[in-house]
Amino acid sequence: MKIILTLLINFIINLASGSPYKENDKISLLVFYETQGFVHDEAIREGKVMMSKIGNKKNYNIIFAENSNLFEESYLDKIDVMIFLCTTLDVLDENEEKAMKNFIRNGGGFIGIHSATDTEYEWEWYGKLVGAYFMNHPDIQKATIITEKKHHFLTDHLKDRWSIKDEWYNFKDFNPDINVLLSLDESSYEGGENGEYHPISWYHEFEGGRSFYTGLGHVGEVYKDPRFVKMIEKAILYTSGLVTK
């Protein structure tokens, strides 16, 4: 009776907070970092360290994959969220693309980090999933980020305006359905080409699944920044479906 009462109280608390998940919910993640173009050695190394720390902290199942061999439906059925960590260019064949598409359509989650937008240019479906494609970038420098959604679960830990040093992508072929979380103030750095509409992190629901992308993540130090780490932790909860707002 006491156990039932405790579970009921926890359910009511989670329902009231709008975050219907438990800290010990087991999430399975596939962290994929194959590259056929530029190799972000430092970013991939630090990103894997960050993901290992998050996995240990949250008790998640994490598989790291340097190639696409696991992109088959029998394996992806066991995964909640796939993370494209600084992937580049054409990393999936037609069968693997089909498996990924079915994964998303069956409610799977997708997180793209940095050069995930420099990936699969010939696959229009992927472009809509990730939300845009990479166009070019200026030199690494500090820039000011504007938190566009100040009260959203994914970004409510961030200040209205904040600065960080990274490599700032200019984008093309935006999916008009993305929900912009963070944008760049192009007056704060040199080389911005998207103008007043320059998203740098966003999310959206897509064909039954959920997608989150951030352009941050070229500089290794970013993966140690608590603001970035917290956003990725929240992105895992959002894309897994455990947080619904």
What this model shows, in words?
By secondary structure, this protein is α/β, with parallel strands linked by helices. It has a single domain, classed as Rossmann fold, CATH 3.40.50.880. The chain has six helices and eleven strands. A nine-stranded mixed sheet has the order 2-1-3-4-11-10-9-6-7, sandwiched between helices. A hairpin with a 2-residue loop joins strand 10 and strand 11. 36% of the residues are buried. The N terminus is likely disordered.
Task: Provide the descriptors you would attach to this structure in a database record.
25% strand; alpha/beta; single chain; two-stranded antiparallel ribbon; nine-stranded mixed sheet; disordered N terminus; Rossmann fold; 245 residues
Q: What does this entry show, briefly?
A:
With 245 residues, this protein is α/β, with parallel strands linked by helices.
Please write out the topology.
Blueprint: H1 2-17, E1 28-32, H2 41-58, E2 61-65, H3 73-76, E3 81-85, H4 94-105, E4 109-113, H5 124-130, E5 133-136, E6 141-147, E7 161-166, E8 170-172, E9 179-185, E10 199-206, E11 209-214, H6 226-240
Parallel strand pairs: 1-2, 1-3, 3-4, 4-11
Antiparallel strand pairs: 5-8, 6-7, 6-9, 9-10, 10-11
